[in-house]
Design goal:
Blueprint (H helix, E strand, L loop, with lengths): L2 E2 L18 H7 L5 E5 L7 E6 L5 E5 L4 H4 L2 H15 L4 E6 L4 H8 L6 E9 L17 E5 L13 H8 L6 H7 L2 E6 L2 E12 L2 E8 L8 H15 L3 E7 L3 H10 L2 E12 L2
Parallel strand pairs: 4-5, 10-11
Antiparallel strand pairs: 1-2, 2-3, 3-4, 5-12, 6-11, 6-12, 7-8, 8-9, 9-10
Amino acid sequence: MIIELDKAEYRKCRKILHEQGQLEALAVVENINPGRIFVDDGNNPASGLIWLGNNDGFIFFGSEQNESFTSEINGFIDNTIRPEAKKVQLKWFEAMGNHEKWGPVIEAIFEHRKLGSWNQKVYTLHLEDYREQSVPITEFGYEVLQIEEELFTDESIKNIDFLQSKIVEFWPSVEAFFRSGKGYCIIHQNEVVSVCFSGFVADNVHGIHIETVKAHQRKKLAQRIAHRFVKDCLENKIIPYWDCMEMNKPSVAVAESLGFKNVFNYVGYEFPLE
């Protein structure tokens, strides 16, 4: 039987998380970022599934050889996950393993489905590797500002709701973000056009979420704002963490231009829920 844990019980799962697994899994287990956790045993979980609160995927963790858990996954997805996903208009089940041994198991469990896959690359950055000299020169009129509480009361910014909507994709509230995260945005003609902030946080590691609105892409804004963010992190003994699809060449290029080092890779899997 697969059951959902109460948030107060999430830390029971800490001991079965892989030490070199996704930051997102640890952030949810530590109750820093939102998410839901489903396990085989509420008292002593051996295997589980994390549904990330930003609906950006599901993470299988713990023992991949736990047949009492894996044998029930398909029915659980069809009967529990699918109706819940429909409520939030989530049309794809995107999954990954918290360690590499989950890969063959995921492929076997879902072999009857229209299963696709892709590769992810995870990078971290330490002070000795940071390439500060690679800060790009950008066009005139773009201003980098730290995301602070005062920014949300600045009536001159036309689309502050855009910034707020991005933050609450990852955090239960803007206030929760200010307690645990940090970030920067770029303003152009009184509009937020690029953001870079802590998407997931656990211990002293901050996962980077970076996004530039379409009309302002290809202007090196991502590189510029990423530099400001990682410099702030490194000055405060925080490890920046960058997770992106291997096929996302621009994202890979930005990470490597700053000096990020590839620390591990994993495979993501997907199939339609409809």
